[in-house]
């Protein structure tokens, strides 16, 4: 009997995806470049289901029923191309090849187009949830043809996370749509983490709480509207004590955050699209800044404010203010991310359903949160919503949050505690609200030095002023 689905690349993610398929009753052909991983999977997990070990890509292809469904889970970048190039001549028209790694969406577009010429379906699929998600139920974001999705759907909906009976998988759109949405997911994840980091920093250094007390505050927040995986693990980390020193664990970790690059891709992509994801950008830059040890060391002697801690009577109120600032900034981060998806969808003609993106992010993935139900509801009631900020329920939340949010940003600033995420989110909110922006002056400056012209607010047309002459205006 042939296998129903195949997986090549049996490192952490691929092995767990293969196990997940097998646990759902599928016969799974497995392959890895180095045979050890294949043997290891069979040795340890063959009892979980029906695996077919194979030791070459041609053997893998031969083991599969047709049309073939084959998942690639190898290191993103050139290794994926190597595997795709070796597989393509072995496959037959109508076969479905899934790249479930973290590919850049432009690479996925290129691969999809090349394989389509050979009559093969290429599906670039985002998978989020890390090691545990891959095994227990990830959030899956496949992009590719509708027909290919039809072939995969019964398999993917079986292994995906499940929220209230709805699997966390949906056809995102053609070619690179799935990997694009996964990329923005990771960008939002950077934002979420940075904002939580800032809330912690304020609780620690403005309010003066200890990590164990802050863990309790996050636990409490996790029972309310901030309920999410990232808040939950934050409480766990803050409550943890280092075994070597007996100090709070967070105090012994080097304060330099690393990155693998999907946050950077999100910002690069946003710059190309002209999509202002300032919260995500600040989160990516905050990680870069943290890594510049020399620069930080050289700057340590720079003067800071002479401010003191909060008065003890203000403490409880300020803790609540921080919760409000965190929630409001989170709304902005998601609003920016969803707008970037909207912009990408328009640019590439993907027709992405934003409500369905929110739906499949409710479980399995790193940014899973109660909050996403609200986003889903927002796009369900108005699929054309220009920004989440104007959704009725978010507008109410922002209305309530804005004063505390301003207090938090101004208090942090006067105490010299950096809150790039909170402050850029607030600036975004205020800029969108503003009746007039100083962009008028910027455009006038551009016309002054570069004759870049301007439009008037009162009369149609494009104009230029003769700045170096008599300053008369003419229409160009
Ligand atoms: P790695 O990214 O560490 O990749 C290791 C796997 O790639 C091994 O199976 C390795 O084979 C294979 N490989 C590397 N180079 C080649 C090549 N030239 N030809 C064939 N195979 C090759 O594994 P992960 O499981 O961590 O991740 C797999 C994919 O999933 C990546 O694209 C990653 O970005 C993505 N991802 C990872 C997540 C995570 O939490 N780790 C979360 C979501 C997505 P060998 O054993 O022979 O060296």
From TrEMBL:
Taxonomy, superkingdom: Bacteria
EC number: 1.1.1.44
Name of the protein in its database record: 6-phosphogluconate dehydrogenase, decarboxylating
Keywords, comma-separated and alphabetical: Gluconate utilization, NADP, Oxidoreductase, Pentose shunt
Enzyme class: oxidoreductase
Molecular-function GO term, any one: NADP binding
Domain 6-phosphogluconate dehydrogenase C-terminal: 178-468
Pfam family, one: NAD_binding_2
Role, per record: Catalyzes the oxidative decarboxylation of 6-phosphogluconate to ribulose 5-phosphate and CO(2), with concomitant reduction of NADP to NADPH.
GO BP field: D-gluconate metabolic process; pentose-phosphate shunt
Top-level taxonomy: Bacteria, Bacillati, Actinomycetota, Actinomycetes, Pseudonocardiales
Record-linked InterPro entries: 6-PGluconate_DH-like_C_sf (IPR008927), 6PGD_dom2 (IPR013328), 6PGDH_C (IPR006114), 6PGDH_Gnd/GntZ (IPR006113), 6PGDH_NADP-bd (IPR006115), 6PGdom_BS (IPR006184), NAD(P)-bd_dom_sf (IPR036291), Pgluconate_DH (IPR006183)
Binding site for substrate: 102, 128-130, 185-186, 190, 260, 287, 446, 452
Family: Belongs to the 6-phosphogluconate dehydrogenase family.
Binding partners and assembly: Homodimer.
Active site: residue positions: 182, 189
Catalytically driven reaction(s): 6-phospho-D-gluconate + NADP(+) = D-ribulose 5-phosphate + CO2 + NADPH
Source species of the chain: Halosaccharopolyspora lacisalsi
Keyword Membrane recorded: no
């Amino acid at each position: 009997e042939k296998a129903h689905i195949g997986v090549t690349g049996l490192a952490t993610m691929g092995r767990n995806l293969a196990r997940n398929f097998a646990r759902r009753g599928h016969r799974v052909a497995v392959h890895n470049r180095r045979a050890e991983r294949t043997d290891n999977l069979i040795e340890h997990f063959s009892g979980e289901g029906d695996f077919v070990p194979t030791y070459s890509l041609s053997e893998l292809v031969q083991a599969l029923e047709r049309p073939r469904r084959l998942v690639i889970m190898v290191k993103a970048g050139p290794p994926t191309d190597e595997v795709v190039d070796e597989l393509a001549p072995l496959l037959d028209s109508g076969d479905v090849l899934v790249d479930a790694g973290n590919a850049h969406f432009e690479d996925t577009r290129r691969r999809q187009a090349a394989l389509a010429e050979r009559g093969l379906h290429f599906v670039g699929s985002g998978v989020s949830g890390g090691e545990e998600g891959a095994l227990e139920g990830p959030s899956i974001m496949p992009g590719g043809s509708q027909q290919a999705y039809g072939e995969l759907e019964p398999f993917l909906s079986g292994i995906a996370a499940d929220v209230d009976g709805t699997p966390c998988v949906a056809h995102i759109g053609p070619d690179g749509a799935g990997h694009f949405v996964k990329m923005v997911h990771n960008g939002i994840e950077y934002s979420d983490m940075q904002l939580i980091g800032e809330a912690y920093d304020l609780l620690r250094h403005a309010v003066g709480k200890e990590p164990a007390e802050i863990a309790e505050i996050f636990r409490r927040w996790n029972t309310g509207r901030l309920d999410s995986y990232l808040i939950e693990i934050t409480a766990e980390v803050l409550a943890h004590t280092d075994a070597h020193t007996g100090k709070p664990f967070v105090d012994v970790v080097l304060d330099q955050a690393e990155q693998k690059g999907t946050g950077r891709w999100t910002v690069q992509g946003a710059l190309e699209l002209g999509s202002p994801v300032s919260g995500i950008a600040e989160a990516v830059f905050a990680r870069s800044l943290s890594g510049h040890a020399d620069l930080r060391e050289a700057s340590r002697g720079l003067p800071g404010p002479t401010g003191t801690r909060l008065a003890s009577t203000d403490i409880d109120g300020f803790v609540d203010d921080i919760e409000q600032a965190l929630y409001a900034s989170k709304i902005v981060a998601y609003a920016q991310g969803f707008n970037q998806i909207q912009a990408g969808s328009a640019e590439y003609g993907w027709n992405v359903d934003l409500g369905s993106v929110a739906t499949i992010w409710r479980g399995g993935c790193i940014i899973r949160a109660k909050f996403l139900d609200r986003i889903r509801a927002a796009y369900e009631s108005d699929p054309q919503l220009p920004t989440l900020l104007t959704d009725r329920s978010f507008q109410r939340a922002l209305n309530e949050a804005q004063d505390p949010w301003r207090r938090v940003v101004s208090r942090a600033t006067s105490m010299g505690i950096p809150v790039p995420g909170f402050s850029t989110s607030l600036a975004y909110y205020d800029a969108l609200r503003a009746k007039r922006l100083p962009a008028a002056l910027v455009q006038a400056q551009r016309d002054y030095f570069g004759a870049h012209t301007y439009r008037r607010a009162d009369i149609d047309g494009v104009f230029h002023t003769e700045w170096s002459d008599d300053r008369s205006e003419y229409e160009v």
